[in-house]
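Hi everyone, sorry if this is the wrong subforum. Our group has a chain we'd like a structural model of before ordering constructs, and none of us has done structure prediction before. Sequence below.
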Amino acid sequence: MNLTTLAAHGLTAEGIQMLVYVNGVHFLVVLILWMVGRGHKNDSVLDIYWGFSFVVAVWMAYALTADVSARGKLISALVTVWGARLGYHLLSRWARIHGQGGDLRYQDIKDRLSASGSYSLKVLLVVYVPMWLSYALAQLNMLLVIGAKDQPPLTSTDLVSGGVMVAAIALEVVADLQLDAFKANHRNEGRILDYGVWSWSRHPNYFANFCCYWAIFAISLRVPGLLWTVISPLFMSWLLIGFTGKKWMESHLSRRRPGYAQYVARTSGFVPMPPRRS
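Answer:
Right subforum, don't worry. Here is the predicted structure as tokens:
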């Protein structure tokens, strides 16, 4: 495949160089976090960078692009608000729980990898490097939109998609605030959050995140040649629904929360819907 063919799919020489620079910075940060995790004996420190990585990525792309289009500016603004808010939420969450061992997902991973061999090396290869690759896949379309030249003007599709993303960010904020308030009340220990937006969906925060990735893809479709970047929202949908998000959380809660089966019976699994009657 020659450079002309790649350019027709949004992968110009400048675009490829931008992706190399952005993901090179991500890799350096991941290595630093791996070393921090060794000092804290807690690999959930890796979560801190997830939201912030999107802000770093779009502003690096913005700085490396000579003339950013209106669509690129729209993507940069939306992702900055979204990523900074999510990054702050994950950072404050890690600050609260890292002394208790951190996120239970990372504790599960540690239990499995510590059985034999060098845990430090294995966790680098099995957790940190795949997370770095996740940044690359999740951010692919937004970076190529920012770096793309000769784009058509903004359309109503772009504005509607941007509005959907703003609404999704608002839903994510509400869901996280309600969850934080619920966990802060010690009387809720062992109970299930089943009111507010959590009465309409068992995972409103994941659903909101899902909507953000697809809204970004809808905006990227206005740039010729970027249809293939559907791999970004598809990959994130798999993570959110079928791997480390909904699937893992449901498995964890069903074993540790009495009454979770009843909550499942009356509450939508993902897309917010009015709760079903018992």
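For your construct planning: The chain has a mean pLDDT of 90. The two ends are 58 Å apart (CA to CA).
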